[in-house]
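pls read this stuff:
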Amino acid sequence: MRRSRGLASALALSLAGSGAAVGLGLVPRAAAVTPPVAFTADPLPTWQPNGVVWALAEAGGTVFAGGTFSTVRPPAGGGGAERSAVNFAAFDAATGAPGSCELSFTIGSGTATVRALTLSPDKKTLYAGGYFGAVNGTPVSSMAAIDVATCTVNQSFRPAFAATVRAIAVTDDTVYAGGDFLTVAGQPRQRFAAVGAADGALRPFRADADDPGRAVEVTPDGRNVLLGGDFFTVNGMNTHALAVVDATSGALAKTYPGFIETNSVVKDIATDATGFYTANEGTGGGVFDGRIALNLSDFNQRWRDTCLGATQAVLPYRGVLYSASHAHDCSSVGEYPDGQRHHLLAQPTTSVGKLGWAPDTNDGIGEGIGPRVMTVGAKAATPYLWVGGEFTTVNGAAQQSLTHFSSTDDTGAPTTPVASAAAFRPGEVQVRWRTSLDLDDSALTYRIYRNGAATPIGTVTADSLFFKRPQASWTDTTAQAGQSYAYRVTATDAAGNVSAPSGTASVTVPTSADAYPSQVRADGAQLYWRYDESSLPYVADSSDGNQAGVHQNAPALRQSPGAVGGASTAIGFNGTNAHVYGDRRQSVGSTYSIETWFRTGTTQGGKLVGFGNQQINGSSQYDKHVYMTDDGRLVYGVYTGATRTITTAASYNDDKWHHVVATQGPGGMTLYVDGAQKGTLNVTTHENFTGYWRVGFDGLGGWPDRPTSEHFAGLIDETAVYPGVLSAAQVQNHYALASAPADTVVQVTASEDTYANAGAPDGNYGTSGSLAVRGTSLYASYLRFGLPAAPAGTVLKSAALSVKTSTMAGAGTTDTVSVVPVTGAWSEAGTTYNNRPGLGATALGAFPGVPDGSAVHTAGLDTAAVAGALGGSYGLALTSAGTDALWLWSSEAAANEGTPRLTLTFGAP
């Protein structure tokens, strides 16, 4: 039996026998990955064959690889020269370097290949199967026994298989084989056979199948043999692709008629202490391509994973089932829709759901399958997961056919979070980000930093997977109205690997509630995309639902003016390939409302917003949508077995902003445009499926007045989805609030700045990258700002000054620093201590002590005083009465983050 593949207990015993303190069945040291995953996703340097690896086995710290190849070469950047390796090579389990055992598997005509490698239970003999006629010149017939200690062929083991051997399992005295053969030693044995482990003599075991055998495994108690392959009958009984037989006679113990689809086969079987697992591959439509877990107690199904993508190998290890496939569609198990292929996955042996382990390969050469085989090897008490196949890259880097992963030394950092920040009311900032991807850690810790401080202001833990990266958020309740803040976010995994910080997310806190978004949130939106992002590919959710979106094919960002008053922007779609899709798979209840704003002049129509079962590709299920016809009319539709729609009489492709709301609930369907009801329909149901909210594109086949294009060309803004029905009054209120006055924020950087130094009374520091403040011996800093006039119909509602401490040790101060008006004349180039200007007596604001560490700090200023200086030049001085100096970056410093800076908020009187 393939103890080297499936049974960690045998490996643990081999380590214990060598004096190792921890076996493979125990927790490896310092794995630093999210349990129960045991291996990192960081590939280690591994020598690589020039063909396909079909088989792997491990003994005593050496991994044996068999396949169809002729040489092995160093990994990229590694030392050494390519060397001959004819369909077989041995490697150090830890370093991935070639070992001393060299065997050539050849045949007189045709292409030799090694398809199976399995160790005897005592790890002293390696059994090899495939299609070959000699090993190092010793004649054999598609199966050979190799003495592990001497790396020589056991010439007393001479079974004669008449065709390819594809699978081997071994007990103390018996070798079981599956493959293409019809005879063994001249005797009938159709696709499965058993021979003596010592001499290869044919055993009476008969489990004759009508089509090839691809997998064979012995149950841990040794009483039964598990068979997998292409077959439809075993010993004349109907049992497609899977069967359980008696280990002595081959008599059927369990059949599986109709259990696996007729166009699917079993490629691999592996066992653990309580179950066995199948890897399945199908051809054509309606296939089963996933994995099945069955109980050893009764041989019945425990669970079935119906992901599509040709599973080639399964490996249970410490409660986790690792698999090799090219899984491209796991929507049937509630995970991800058809799209990108994922080749290495992990899930609990007890359930279907995927775990946070997903290193990846490409499809590679040959059949373009990717990985085909896995085994666990160990050296110095450290387990390693080895993967072979026909891939040519691992995690995007060149590496052919063979790679391995350690159970220790996780070195891969999470991807950089993509963050944004929004403030809808005084005293509160919502910082949100798309959770990071870490291929071996699903549980990550996020730290939020404000204004460049070295110490985080908040910490959040959140889970993410490669197909599920939800938005995480944190609310800063210490933010002050009228002040500006800059936030950055980092992600840290269990090993302490830290991502690069996110880009800066800046926001100014309003002095009064922002009317439109505040009302959308108050009315219960559970998805709210405002499209204010300045970078791809993350669309922030401004509701409390944390339902982020993702840009597809780079729609145009920050299109201005947006649909509502204020600084918020819109998003632009090109009508050919751009759209936004939701990042959360969900179902939609019987009541909901969809809301968005749009502006277009298109004559080709397109979908504005809707719900579909795909993210990137066009959906095969789609309803609960609003689309535009070629002549600009709007259609709101659901599917109930037939399309049920409301269509407007008027057209709205007039290149003006329009507001559309579609609701469905116990009262039926209602469509509103620009605050007015445009139609109703007494339909209270819709198609019930799981999917994603989408904006700008999705399928419309079979719908009335189908437009020329399913892609929308134009601007979209303020998309929201609610779990309930918006009333007519709420819809009208939203429409009216879009034109309500909103605060305007203007940021002004210093046009001049310098400081005076009592220690150098004639010195001028106008070109210095620093500013300084101290009472004794005096430092005083001077700042000049060109203030704008108040926009028409507004007044100044708040003013704040922001400065940034330098990286100098002890740059902060325990003293209070006052902000006072400058009353005398001064210039950046000419001011010294001796000619420093006069100052006003009344402070406009103050910094009550500034901590060490380079960070931005903000102080509110007297609004009336600043308002009196609008439309002109305004001078401010920073002074102190203490002895602890404050050191700041000046406007000349590259690290100043736009400081010194005034933030002015204007609004309605």
In short: Residues 532 and 568 are 6 Å apart (CA to CA). The first strand starts at residue 43 and ends at 44. Helices lie at 3-6, 8-17, 515-522, 728-737, 863-867. Confidence is low (pLDDT under 50) at residues 1-31.
